[in-house]
Design brief:
Blueprint (H helix, E strand, L loop, with lengths): L1 H9 L4 H4 L5 H33 L1 E3 L5 E4 L3 H7 L2 H33 L5 H9 L6 H11 L6 H6 L12 H25 L4 H9 L4 H12 L1 H16 L3 H6 L11 H10 L4 H24 L7
Antiparallel strand pairs: 1-2
Helix pairs in contact: 3-15, 4-15, 5-6, 5-9, 5-12, 9-12, 12-15, 14-15
Family: Belongs to the binding-protein-dependent transport system permease family.
Keywords: Cell membrane, Membrane, Transmembrane, Transmembrane helix, Transport
Membrane topology: Multi-pass membrane protein
Amino acid sequence: MKKSAVAAKTSPQNPQKNAIHKTPFQKIEPYLYITPALILFCCFVFFPFAKTLFLSLHSTTPKGEISKFVGFSNFTSLLTSEAFRNSLFVTVKYSLMVVFFSIAAGFITGVLANEKIPGTGLFRTIYSLPMAISSAAASIIFIFVFHPSIGILNYLLGTDIGWLISDKWALFSVVMVTVWMNIGLNFIFILAALQSVPPELYESASLEGAGFFRKHLSITLPCISPTLFFLLIINVINSFQSFAQINLMTKGGPGQSTYVIVYSIYQEAFFNNRFGLACAESVILFFIILALTLVQFRLEKKVTY
């Protein structure tokens, strides 16, 4: 009887009584740690986004002051505009090329740098160098590379192509520059993923008679698919937001061959002084990127973990 009474007193029959009592400060302490980050997000992300949504429903004066509420007229004007549809087409075309070639180049350089050959450390440094160069600096360098008369590219190829002033080659030239700038990031992530692939898998494949390409197709790609999925999302978002190289190298031209949405937003806001229309374009661009990201996450089930 005495043992059962003692056991009854010590058993946790009431969880609330045995719970650790927290002081008021301990209850709010976790929120204090994230308060600085929340303040920054509110000032530089949430408030600007809300302001953009608000301005997209209004027309503005040349000074950016709100003149009147127009509802969805800005969106209607954009969706019925031939120039906006062209910029959307150019953006999609540009992004498809940038994403494909950036990830492919990162994968190839990562595989080569992962091989045990002399000079691998030097190759890794060279492949990573584009990350240390800003978009503006890279654009200025490639302006001289693509110059029709003194450019080194025409000299090496023995051609006389106006890379940045030709409707045929301007977009491809900007894509080449963007891919070169993206190689460093993709290379580092893919190389890190490759080093986590068990070497025993390659040894087993070699014993089965698998060649170089077969091993990477059947082993490497499935093993690093989570990294490729991450890079796909990052590259898609970055490609839709490209601006510096287009502004410096082609300014959306010649014609409208490189007139992407981000450059169109810049033109509408700071040259045409139509801030409401520019904000509407920004909102459309946001929802396009959001939709593409959600679609990619729906395809995540095909990723091997």
